[in-house]
Amino acid sequence: MTEIWAQAALWLGLALLATLLSIWLKVATALSEIVVGTIAQLVIGALLSSTILAGDASWLKFLAGAGAIVLTFLAGAELDPVVFKRQWKQAGAIGFISFLGPFLGCAAIARFVLGWSGQASWLAGIAMSTTSVAVVYAVMLEFGINRSDYGKTVLAACFVTDLATVVALGLLFAPFSVRTLIFLGAGIVVFVVLPIITPWFFRRYGGRPSELEAKFLMLCLFGMGALATWADSEAVLPAYLIGMVLAGTVGKDHVLVRRLRTLTFGLLTPFYFIRAGSLVSIPALVAAPAAMLILLIAKMVTKIVGVYPVTRLYAAPRREAAYTTLLMSTGLTFGTIAALFGLSHDVINQAQYSALVATVILSAVVPTLIANAFFLPRHLIDSQAADPGEAPALSEESGSTAARRAS
Fold first, then answer.
1. Among residues 221, 131, 172, 114, which one has the least CA distance to residue 341?
2. CB under 8 Å to 85, separation ≥6 — which residues?
3. Closest listed residue to residue 237, CA positions, set 251, 249, 247, 227
4. Burial class of 189 by CB neighbour count within 10 A (0 to 12, 13 to 18, 19+)
5. Which of 21, 48, 257, 366 has a 20 to 30 Å separation from 121 between CA atoms?
6. Coil vs helix vs strand at 404
């Protein structure tokens, strides 16, 4: 146990350092955690041992996976059903073109420029087509943009992109099976029943120090996550859907959301983002950077060519259109999942896997840094940072919670 506690202290120390750097450099904490993880793996590995920061331990994988699941759930819970119904055409169009352009373009680049095999090229297209809901949500949350209609629409578009990615990966590489049918059937039942029983359950038994609400949500997220992985899907996909269907319940409970954010950003997501950064091998990239650079440029160019005109078609101002385009160019969770799937099923080799993972992780950093430096929609920050409705909502919720506890 001594080794585990020491390793946990090291990772949380790196998380604290990343948070301080994000404050000093005025960048999103998620990005600083990724960069710190990459640099720490190189420095600590050279000075001491590469195994000290290795993220292969089962408890580390669990915390990192739990961070991705809960963060994705919170992103889904931010979606306002009213806004989604009003903006679904825009979100759907942006999300689909954000998938289709890089999927076809990067697959072609991998096949005809890098000389990869047909199967490896299609996998590269899938890995490059993703948009990271976790990164986009974390960045928006830092600036308060997630509460605006604009932020909710972008998060919905991210979901459309990643849903198309999962479907493409399943159709091309994971044959449809009985397990898939069971997962889909169980998912439909859960997504229909949860919005009905959750409000009643929380009213009847919630509002106690035992944090029953958080335990109930974790049960749903981990249960559906287990069923999804059993069916060769991904655990974060049902997490986002659960967040969406409970947006009217959980999303409006500001006290519960704040408690979940404390758990997620205080403990879970540092392991997720730092581990993602530690997967990048800087020496390998320095030795053979061509594939990574070509794929990164291809991803960003195809995203820009596809997404920017669509955002302008829906009358988005130039700054917001550019910001949306760059955020949709980010990648992390599904991209690394697709790359790992290809490696484990012998679709790609180790060198191709390293190039894909490095590109995916760089795509979480480079577009976001450019977006926040040059295209940040500050008018949304100003209007949302001092949201006049949030304080009364928190006070009202706190009062109702206290009343329930007193009764």
1. 172
2. none
3. 227
4. exposed
5. 366
6. helix
Indicate the domain borders of the chain.
Answer: 2-406
What does the pLDDT look like over 278-329, one tens digit per residue? 877 777 777 778 888 999 999 999 999 999 999 999 888 899 999 999 999 9
Do residues 140 and 372 make contact, with C-beta atoms less than 8 angstroms apart?
no
Please give the Cα distance from 227 to 223 (Å, whole number): 6
Q: What pTM does this model have?
A: 0.74
Nearest to 132 by CA among 355, 333, 371, 358: 333
Q: Greatest CA span in the chain, whole angstroms?
A: 69
Buried b (16+ CB within 10 A) or exposed e, 74-93: bbbbbbbeebbeebeebbeb
Residue 184 identity (one-letter amino acid)? L
CB-CB contact of 95 with 159 (8 Å)? yes
Reduce the secondary structure of 148-181 to three states and give it as a string. Answer: CHHHHHHHHHHHHHHHHHHHHHHHHHCCCCHHHH
Separation of alpha carbons 91 and 156, rounded Å: 6
Reported as a single tens digit per residue, the pLDDT across 176-202 is 778 888 998 999 999 999 999 999 999
Q: Which residues does 326 contact at the CB level (< 8 Å), separation at least 6? A: 367, 368, 370, 371, 375
Helices and strands: H and E segment counts in the chain: 19, 0
What span, in angstroms and rounded, lies between the C-alpha atoms of 60 and 54?
Answer: 9
The listed CATH number (3.40.50.720, 1.20.1530.20, 3.40.50.150, 3.30.930.10) that belongs to domain 2-406: 1.20.1530.20
